[in-house]
Design goal:
The longest helix is centred in the C-terminal third of the chain and has 20 residues. It is globular, with a radius of gyration of 13 Å. The chain is α+β, with helices and mostly antiparallel strands. A 5-stranded mixed beta sheet has the order 3-2-1-4-5. It is built from 4 helices and 5 strands; from the N terminus they run H-E-E-E-E-H-H-E-H. The protein has a single domain, classed as Nonspecific Lipid-transfer Protein, Chain A (2-Layer Sandwich), CATH 3.30.1050.10.
């Protein structure tokens, strides 16, 4: 899978779900390693979620992960805490904010199951 395909899959999955009502601010840069290497970010700001295809310097944390593992986290096939504990997901920056990211992935996976 190419970087563009990975980014589009994540963006489409996030944007196709109703994430309204999510408040606060959270910005996570995703650094994909291995196949499809590249960076993009996901940001929750004022009740809206943005997914953009570049590095974000005002981020709360960085996830360093393979594309396969990140897609499994987003789909709910892999628990992010387990991924972190086993070394499949590395986090730089605020661990507290990284844990908040689970709100987004939980919402995406629960909405996806309803479809």
């Amino acid at each position: 899978m190419t970087y563009q395909e990975i980014f589009e899959k994540v963006r489409d999955e996030v944007y196709s779900n109703d994430l309204s009502g999510m408040e606060g601010h959270l910005s996570v840069q995703i650094n994909i390693i291995g196949d499809g290497e590249g960076a993009f970010y996901i940001e929750l700001l004022d009740g809206k979620v943005y997914v953009e295809p570049y590095e974000y310097y005002d981020r709360d944390c960085i996830f360093i992960v393979t594309a396969d593992d990140f897609l499994k986290i987003m789909s709910g096939e892999m628990n992010p805490v387990w991924a972190f504990t086993t070394g499949k997901l590395k986090v730089q920056g605020s661990i507290e904010k990284a844990l908040e990211f689970q709100k987004i992935s939980d919402r995406v996976k629960s909405n996806s199951k309803k479809k």
